[in-house]
Amino acid sequence: LRLVAELRDAIERGDITLLYQPIFSTRDGRPVAVESLARWTHAERGPISPAVFVPLAEESGLIAGLGLLVLDETCRQLAEWDRLMGDGAPPRANVNVSALQLDANLPAQVAEALQRHGLHSSRISIEITESALMKDPDSARLVLFQLREQGVELAIDDFGTGYSSLAYLRHLPVNCLKVDRSFVAELAHGHTEIASAVIALARSLNLSTVAEGVETPEQAAELTRLGATYLQGFSLSQPMTGSGTAAWFATRG
Ligand code: G
Ligand code: G
Ligand code: MN
Ligand code: NA
């Protein structure tokens, strides 16, 4: 419970920082976006994973504040990159959204963050996990349609690990499926079935794919062969700070 109080303080003080991990086109190898990833460094315990503090925030009523902070800071950073780098700035940022943020307020919150920082809506992509969508499919669907209407792109995160029906998926206005990293890891053991099926499914629905957790050049080559649109993972680039990302794009973008 002390950790909850400390997390509340960290959110209020803006002590949650963001790292950015590039996402690459398989067509020409160029970085097309970054995913924004929340980080919390606790004074005594050191770094605490978002796999720990995001669920903690969800359980303790802090997720709304954390979500707003992540959204606002990502937009602020995009605007700063634009000022510093012009055309060389990261084209887009993907923002992870918790199941509990997926309510009627989200479209307005996204619109306000974009407007506050003078950004076009095409600069943001919202990542929603498959399981978040299935909590309340009807209301999720409504929120997604509003976001799409505003021009915000939508990606389904960790795709293949949840239980969304394909019939339901077909009627969602999403742009992209993120192939869960467990299916990318399997490639090393000769199992291409799931990654291959998800990529083929996405193509038949006219959706792009990001293969996540690409840790070796062999995986990158195989995923490219299978027709993935984009790649993300440690073998291509680690998540970097905002200024690190600017320096990296200045040489690589
Ligand atoms: O970056 P890392 O692999 O440690 O992230 C662990 C988990 O935390 C992943 O599932 C990731 O999607 C999630 N995560 C990271 N940043 C955010 C965030 O800003 N908001 C939400 N809701 N989840 C995040
Ligand atoms: O669930 P989500 O896809 O949002 O999780 C993103 C998390 O995946 C980030 O926290 C990031 O640190 C982590 N990540 C990024 N690249 C790799 C990778 O190549 N391997 C593994 N194991 N994790 C990765
Ligand atoms: Mn994600
Ligand atoms: Na994922």
From TrEMBL:
Q: Which domain of life is it from?
A: Bacteria
- Domain EAL span(s) in chain numbering: 1-253
Q: Organism source for this protein?
A: Blastococcus xanthinilyticus
The residue ranges crossing the membrane are none
- Protein name listed in UniProt: PAS domain S-box-containing protein/diguanylate cyclase (GGDEF)-like protein
